[in-house]
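Continued from yesterday's entry.
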Amino acid sequence: MTAQVLPFAALAYLLALLLCGVRLLRGPAAHDRVLALDTLYVVALSLIAVLGMTSGNPFNFEGMLAIAMLGFVGTVTAARYLIRSRGGRDADLG
């Protein structure tokens, strides 16, 4: 049963990657792009997990760990930059 579901899950994650990429490129504001980047790396982690389950390769999970750490640091760095560039105020409030 799992072998039949995993290809559909991989296709759904690929579609999600595509949509996140579109939001990353077209995002109307910088904070939308940061959220799209955060979602992009989470979806990439999920896709790597699905591919690891289909191939049975345990080394995919080490790659997932590296992507998770880099994605978290990247998101925090981008968010801190946006906060400092706006003087600590939210764009919608000020």
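--- second protein ---
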Amino acid sequence: MSSIRCLLFDCDNTLVLSETLAFEACAELANEILESQGVSDRYTGHALFTEFVGQNFRGMMSSLQKKYSLDLPPATFDDYVTREEDRVIGKIKAALQPCVGVDDELARLFTSGWYEMAVVSSSAKRRVEASIEKAGMDKYFPRDKIFSAATSLEKPTSKPDPAIYLHACKVLGKQPGECVAVEDSKSGTLSAVRAGIPTIGYVGSYEPEKQEEMRAVLKEAGAEPIMSHWSEFSACLEKIEKRT
């Protein structure tokens, strides 16, 4: 019998197609910040996604602050983080869709009753909650099963820091080896792998021409096996369970 009893799902572009919406909002706000600081560079949502996929806005802004030597006092920084959450949540409530095939798989897993399931994200908890509710997944993931690196920890952080996965395991009363994570980004995969959690990579949310490249990126980061569609999840999970 398998020792895997807990499934930990990343949210953005793993359960729901939120990253394009989020990076559109992030780009709007990042460009406002750059303009206010007298910096001429501007970002599109796609450019931010390419450079910062898997990071939350706090981590992204820290990187931009270093890159451009921005003068952002902590209170101003925190205000921008809150404004970004509001903008992204607005876009999520208007247009969010689940990843293809995930609904059927979550229903099957939930009905089986074998696995405890939780969401482990870099994004702010209220953004994740908005995504889960909009997608109709709150029946699988109540609020106490949603963990946010930006909100749930005493010191906010972002993947690839493993802190949020270790925190989730502690709260759920599970050892990392009893869990399996599902991640679509390099930073998320590194976060789970560094926490000692076997990780399934998911590339189905990327454009077809990008999927092979991301398959190699996630494999190098430690994800094994890797799936391109949620219909492959059962077989991927079985591979891990046979190893444990």
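The mean pLDDT is 94. The two ends are 10 Å apart (CA to CA). Will compare against the first tomorrow.
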